[in-house]
Amino acid sequence: MSAARYVSLSEAEDNKLREIEQNGNVREKVRLRAKILRLSHRGMSAGELASYTGRHKASVLRDYDRWERQGLAGLADGSAPGVKSPLGERERLFLHERLAEERSWTAKQLAEAVQERFKIEVNRESMRVCLHELGYSWQRHRYVP
Fold this sequence. Notes:
Distance between the termini: 72 Å
Number of strands: 0
Helix content: 55-70%
Order of helices and strands: HHHHHHH
């Protein structure tokens, strides 16, 4: 049986993790990871934390590993698995330029513009995901009498 594993934090790290844990604008999973690290620092074992949080012990230990390797950056969610976007930096800059124009664009129209300019096949859904990654959001226009 292996020895219990705990995370050691400096006072500054503990304070920063407390700020993250109590910040309602931070994603819930990130706040939970901060809480797990702080409770580990106070003596809760990975098994106890797993029971307390409803997560698997391996997930708790993975949080420890990410903290030790990456520090605060290890709290953030990783990128989702899947096919990477075909759009590179050049294409994204092109999208910013098009979206700065005085007109409305649909994801399909933008995909067609990228295909015409860069000869890259991009479907509407990939364009939608890319636009969200770039920080753009939209709503359907409502026509009110």
